[in-house]
Amino acid sequence: MELWYTENQTQNVNFSMKVKSHLYSAQSEFQKIDIIDTYEFGRVLVIDNWTMVTEKDEFIYHEMITHVALATNPEIKNVLVIGAGDGGTVRELTRYNNIENIDMVEIDELVVKASIEHLPFTSNKLSDPRVNLYFEDGIKFVKGKENLYDLIIVDSTDPIGPGEGLFTAEFYTDCYNALTEKGILINQCESPYYSHNAYEMKRSYKKLNNLFSICKAYQYHMPTYPSGHMIFCFASKVLDPIKDLDSEKWNELELETKYYNTELHKGAFSLPNYVIKLLNSEN
Amino acid sequence: MELWYTENQTQNVNFSMKVKSHLYSAQSEFQKIDIIDTYEFGRVLVIDNWTMVTEKDEFIYHEMITHVALATNPEIKNVLVIGAGDGGTVRELTRYNNIENIDMVEIDELVVKASIEHLPFTSNKLSDPRVNLYFEDGIKFVKGKENLYDLIIVDSTDPIGPGEGLFTAEFYTDCYNALTEKGILINQCESPYYSHNAYEMKRSYKKLNNLFSICKAYQYHMPTYPSGHMIFCFASKVLDPIKDLDSEKWNELELETKYYNTELHKGAFSLPNYVIKLLNSEN
Fold first, then answer.
1. pLDDT tens for residues A192-221?
2. Which residues of A touch B227 (CB under 8 A)?
3. Considering B108, B150, B155, B174, which one is annotated as catalytic?
4. Residue B158 pLDDT more than 90?
5. Which of A79, B156, B187, B192 has the smallest C-beta neighbourhood within 10 Å, fewest atoms?
6. 3-class DSSP assignment, residue B80
7. Which of B193, B194, B243 is nearest to B216 (CA)?
8. Which of A272, A251, A226, A229 is nearest to B15 (CA)?
9. Which CATH code fits B3-54?
10. Which pLDDT belongs to residue B167?
11. Where are the domains of chain A?
12. Quick one: pLDDT band at residue B108, thresholds 50, 70, 90?
């Protein structure tokens, strides 16, 4: 028997991967969680039939969601991560000795449990003594916090289901208040290519851009996400990801990375015209 | 009835698009040619079951294969295009008044005929008076030519079938000889992500790098090609695509582009570590 997992990237586009075995399946309070082993991509975490993480290319996503901020401000000490149940974002963060504390807030404990059991390649640093796990709603967690975090990473699923509230102006305002003066917010901002993703990209960017004095989108190549063309938003009260990039200091750390480097850091902020136009459009 | 076209991107990965209608199908002397109309991507040219051009994102490929060279040397006059039967590369080239002559050599006349009939969005400038169409083998066409072209664009299919000879050291040497002193070669160099594509990317890059004093790979986001992460190689005897980029002059032309801009030009040469490692690896 041939087993294939198909993601409906749009109503009219399917992406399918051949499956070795279906390792895990569970319905949590929030969502359907599946883990499969595939021929091309290794182990894959699927939530509500959307591909979240694959063993083959998770390094791209997790390096790009973390190192851009850490190379811009090498003095980040206190970090809040929202979502990121697979642990990959925390894994990259724990490589920095300057980071003293990581609060990770994941609404769905079952995602973390499944990842610890089946995805050791991302979850293997969740036991780092600097990591505090909270199984709570990130929206509530951040509310009322002031001048606390040097970095907030919103490593969310798409803005449907439990991730929806993570794309609102109210939530972003709470993040703004929770950040220190030099604080940085990194937000998963979808993709410019398919219209429903482009709509969400614009929505998030606009809200962040209204709130923060510096808000810049950067791109990365993520083959297993729809279109492969993905965007993160970098938002800050004072730090500019290009002008304040401290390449020398970051390179002195001698961290081995498979995707990120400080030249790519700069290049990633140079976006195609159609993406710039979308981000600046009124509607 | 639902009609879907599926591309087998690897043995274990399928990409499928929902089809409105199957507009054209023919077997030429060289290959199977199909044109379909799809819900998400508009009209799509498929050769031997590989996606060649889609109406939705062909602009990305055709802008990136042309404007990088033209912005590096604004004095390009004589151009050779090999392959490119859909006409999209020629369409972008005809936007430059400095270009006086374009020789386009496509081995398969039927691709051009089908494109003129069904893909007006790419083929609409093939009738430009500066364009000379040759339905010949590009490998033979370039052999023996010396110091003639300011730009050669190898807009090939994958290195299987009729495109195979376009990836050999002998062919690249003939191109080298056919180029003027400031000549530039732009070569379609596949993708770093799936192993069979990465193998071809390395092969092409190494051959060009051995031959030309300047050889640099640049990347672009092409959603309908496997992995969406695509590479062109820029090779030249004397011109460097970053140092010799004349941003001011190119921007004075006021060409409207949907993907390319001179900041993106610079950024596109900043590659991920895993791609750099592949390009520089011995095997």
1. 999 999 999 999 999 999 999 999 999 999
2. 221, 223, 228
3. B155
4. no
5. B156
6. strand
7. B243
8. A226
9. 2.30.140.10
10. 75
11. 3-54, 58-280
12. very high
Separation CA A173–CA A195 (nearest Å): 26
Cβ–Cβ < 8 Å for A50, A83: no
Distance from A139 to chain B by nearest Cα, in Å? 33
Confidence of residue B166 (pLDDT cuts 50, 70, 90): confident
- What are the pLDDT digits (tens) for B241-275? 999 999 999 999 999 999 999 999 999 999 999 99
In chain B, which among 159-188 make CB contacts under 8 A with chain A? none
Q: Is B228 on the interface with A (CB under 8 A)?
A: yes
Q: Determine, for residues A270 and B263 on separate chains, whether the beta-carbon distance falls below 8 Å.
A: yes
The three-state secondary structure class of A41 is: coil
Distance in Å, alpha carbon of B153 to nearest chain A alpha carbon: 22
**Is A37 one of the catalytic residues?**
no
Across the interface, do A260 and B273 touch by the CB < 8 Å criterion?
yes
Q: One-letter amino acid identity for B111?
A: V
Q: Is A261–B270 a contact, with Cβ atoms under 8 angstroms apart?
A: yes
If you average pLDDT over residues A38-54, what whole number do you get? Answer: 97
Tokens of A126: 């969740």
Equal fold, B3-54 vs B58-280: no
Contact B258 A267 (CB under 8 A): no
B interface test, pick of A221, A222, A260, A269 with most B CB neighbours within 10 Å: A221
At A165 the pLDDT is 73
pLDDT range class, residue B168, cuts 50, 70, 90: confident
The arithmetic mean of pLDDT across residues B83-97, rounded, is 97
Please name the CATH architecture into which domain A58-280 falls.
3-Layer(aba) Sandwich (3.40)
- CA distances (Å), B200 to each of A16, A35, B191, B231, in order? 24, 32, 8, 11
